[in-house]
Amino acid sequence: MTETTVKQIQGRTGPWEMVLGLEVHAQVASNAKLFSGAAVGAGAEPNTQVSLVDAAMPGMLPVINRRCVEQAVRTGLGLKAQINARSRFDRKNYFYPDLPQGYQISQFKEPIVGEGEVLVERDDGSAFTVRIERLHLEQDAGKSLHDQDPDYTYVDLNRSGTALMEIVSRPDMRSAEEAAAYVKKLRTILVYLGTCDGDMEKGNLRADVNVSVCRPGAYEKFRETGDFKHLGTRCEIKNVNSFRFIQQAIEYEARRQIEILEDGGSIDQETRLFDTVKGETRSMRSKEDAHDYRYFPDPDLLPLVLDPAWIKEIEASLPELPDAKKARFQSQYGLSAYDAGVLIGEQARADYFEAAAKGRDAKLVANWVTNDLAARLTAGGLDIDDSPIPPAAVAELVRLIEDGVISSKIAKDVFERMWAGEGSPEAIVEAQGLKQVSDTGALEAIIDGLIAANPDQAAAVKEKPQAIGWFVGQVMKATGGKANPGMINQLLKSRLGV
Ligand code: ADP
Ligand code: MG
Questions:
Q1: Minimum mean pLDDT among 85-89, 263-267, 282-286: which range?
Q2: pLDDT tens by residue, 262-277
Q3: Closest C-alpha residue for ligand 1 atom 15
Q4: d(CA 215, CA 409)
Q5: Which residues constitute the domain of residue 466?
Q6: Nearest Cα to 51, choosing from 161, 198, 190?
Q7: 478 within 8 A of 442, measured Cβ to Cβ
Q8: Same domain assignment for residues 416 and 448
Q9: Which among 39, 77, 142, 305 is least buried, having the fewest CB atoms inside 10 angstroms?
Q10: Beta strands 127-139 and 270-275: pairing type?
Q11: Which of 314, 334, 360 corresponds to the end of one domain?
């Protein structure tokens, strides 16, 4: 584990550094809500997925959804975190038109999951650790619809009561890139675990980004002592829902704070919004403290007590997680850290690779999957699960290269035809006559002809062996690129006497 790399920002009065801590809201993958049996899922007609509990009808009582609890435990285990055998639900009181209860059921003092950690890879392949402070379960609110009528705001309660996991990090990220890389890794882990679908466009995974700035050296003092007084005052940017916006919001916000501080001002702790069109953050409200919410234990719910045997059962059912899979891909298949990292980025891509790599040259398979296939899928807006080329076809293509039936260059052509649906690699090679010319006699005849017709070039090769490349090119041209390159070199060398 390496330390975080600090990116300094040059101000008028000297260098600054940023400090970032994230609160990620992840919608729990569950068919029903956290405290009611109403269905969860986008796309339904407004107010059709609302139980009496979600509508906060008087006298209705919440009943905890076991599945949502299991998902939170599973996530905690995936984050190598402390699972708290006893946790508690609190009421967080505030008024919102789309919050009929007048409070959100959340977990404040006793969350279900305690401290954990996430290993995050940077683009350059180095890695750092983000400490997780806690994960708690809470309800989502409904949604106010402002665009349905010129005079009225409507409320859709379909989302009301949906289970969220709030995952709170320590302030361990030091650049916008690190923050985005953290959310990316967290998302991958949740999707592997099957505890959140990770769909950021739908808002099923979104981040509140806390940003502060300080002078060099201050953060190290904070890490030594744990005392927040060494850090600058933070602002929290709410609900940022793409990797790009996370980075833009952080860059903008850090600069805004530096300007204020350099002008002799001070930062007000506040909640801000990121305007994705203007690319700037603006104030939403001054930061309320916990006591403003009048948190108190929800009297309708008993403390949540987990059976240790059940936690063990969940632990035993965890899938192979991204870090373990990456390490295995490197050792089992001899892949580079980079290739292994790209392949494990999505479970489906990793599965595809493994299906194609069976008994084949795994590095070659990895190249096809991460380059040619990935490019085609991206251009077509397709998931790898919808790839028109199945893993077995990539395996067959690689076998043809391994066996010397086609060259890597011809394989590109075959791949394009596979993508176009012209059939299996073998069938395409057959139909298009793309077999490599490995017939010694045929190649010898071509080479002898070339040497006889170009005595000057042949003499040049004797002086300068690299000049052999010209002959290689000519043979390729004469065979339509189908000559076996190894064989050409061998034959040329013996014929030219080099
Ligand atoms: P709240 O629930 O009021 O938002 P928390 O204490 O739970 O407050 O902290 C929220 C987030 O803010 C955490 O991710 C934490 O790491 C981060 N954070 C706290 N102080 C700072 C700071 N000075 N700079 C950047 N991030 C911070
Ligand atoms: Mg917060």
A1: 282-286
A2: 999 999 999 999 999 9
A3: 21
A4: 54
A5: 440-496
A6: 161
A7: no
A8: no
A9: 305
A10: unpaired
A11: 314
Q: DSSP letter for 327, please.
A: H
How many Å apart are CA 380 and CA 389, to the nearest integer? 13
Assess whether 226 and 168 both reside in one domain: yes
Rounded to whole angstroms, how far apart are CA atoms 388 and 359? 22
The reply to whether 34 and 126 lie within a common domain is yes
What's the CA-to-centroid distance between 115 and ligand 2, angstroms?
Answer: 17
User: Count of CB atoms within 10 A of residue 236's CB?
Assistant: 18
Residues 161 and 310 in one domain: yes
Q: Which atom of ligand 1 is nearest to the CA of 212?
A: 24
E strands, 223-298, in order:
235-240, 270-275, 280-286, 296-297
**Whether residues 23 and 87 fall in one domain:** yes
Q: Give, for ligand 1, the residue of 108, 170, 174, 210 to mutate: max count of ligand atoms closer than 8 Å to Cβ.
A: 210
- How many angstroms separate the alpha carbon of residue 250 from the centre of ligand 1? 14
Q: Whose CA is nearest to atom 13 of ligand 1?
A: 21
Q: How far apart are CA 467 and CA 242, in angstroms?
A: 53
| φ and ψ at residue 454, rounded to 5 degrees | -130, 65
- Cα 272 to ligand 1 centroid, rounded to whole Å: 14
pLDDT at 5: 65
Pairing of strands 8-11, 14-27: antiparallel
Counted domains in the chain = 3
Q: Residue 292 C-alpha to ligand 2 middle, in angstroms?
A: 13
The CATH number linked to 465 is 1.10.10
Tell me which amino acid residue 148 is. Q
Contact 138, 106 (CB under 8 A): yes
| 279 C-beta neighbours (distance < 10 Å), count | 12
The residues lining ligand 1, judged by C-beta closer than 6 Å to any ligand atom, are 19-23, 168-171, 210, 212, 228, 231-232, 234, 236
**Predicted pLDDT at 487:** 80
Q: Do residues 337 and 457 both lie within one domain? A: no
- The structure's pTM equals 0.87
Which residue among 234, 253, 266 has the greatest number of ligand 1 atoms within 8 angstroms of its CB, and so is best to mutate? 234
